[in-house]
Amino acid sequence: MHCPRCTNVALNEAPAGPVSVDRCPKCHGLWLDELELEALLSARPRTLLADDRAVTTAAPAEDARINCPRCRNVYLIKLNSRARPGTIIDSCTVCFGAWLDAGELSRLAHADLAGRLREFFGLK
Ligand SMILES: [Zn+2]
Ligand SMILES: [Zn+2]
Q: Cα of 120 to ligand 1 centre, how many Å?
């Protein structure tokens, strides 16, 4: 698979806890297959999160349309995440994969942790 943001850059497989994600070596974006996001957020793989936080590439243009790296001719659309309602993620409506730009995973993990702490303390 190739990075939907960068031209001619192949995604590398990166082990991340219980799953293995596809990662762009250039923009550090992540491709997640269906349900991998949930698995990643539960596992909180330290190395991947630390690296994701450290990336300071310029944010890509929000309106740039990107194609699904798996389905190729299908545009990703901004969808409410099924794994994390309330989180808008570039998603493929055909294979249900999702693309996270660099930094998005650590922001999600952070929001997730904050949510769990609120639940733990009985706050809503
Ligand atoms: Zn890329
Ligand atoms: Zn797809």
A: 37
Question: How many domains is the chain partitioned into structurally?
Answer: 1
| Buried b / exposed e along 25-35 (16+ C-beta atoms within 10 A) | ebbbbbbbbee
CA of 123 to the centre of ligand 2 (A): 37
Is 53 part of a structural domain of the chain? yes
Task: Give me ligand 1 centre to Cα 26, in Å.
Answer: 5
The whole-angstrom distance between residue 85's C-alpha and the CA centroid of its chain comes to 14
Q: Cα(65) to centroid of ligand 2, in Å?
A: 14
**Higher pLDDT, residue 27 or 55:** 27
In a domain? residue 3: no
Residue 37 CA to ligand 1 centre (angstroms): 18
- At 42 the pLDDT is 85
Give me the domain span that covers residue 64: 12-116
In a domain, residue 5? The reply is no
Look at residue 60 in the predicted model and tell me its pLDDT. 62
Across the chain, mean pLDDT equals 86
Residue 34 domain-assigned? yes
Rounded Cα distance between 62 and 111, Å, is: 21
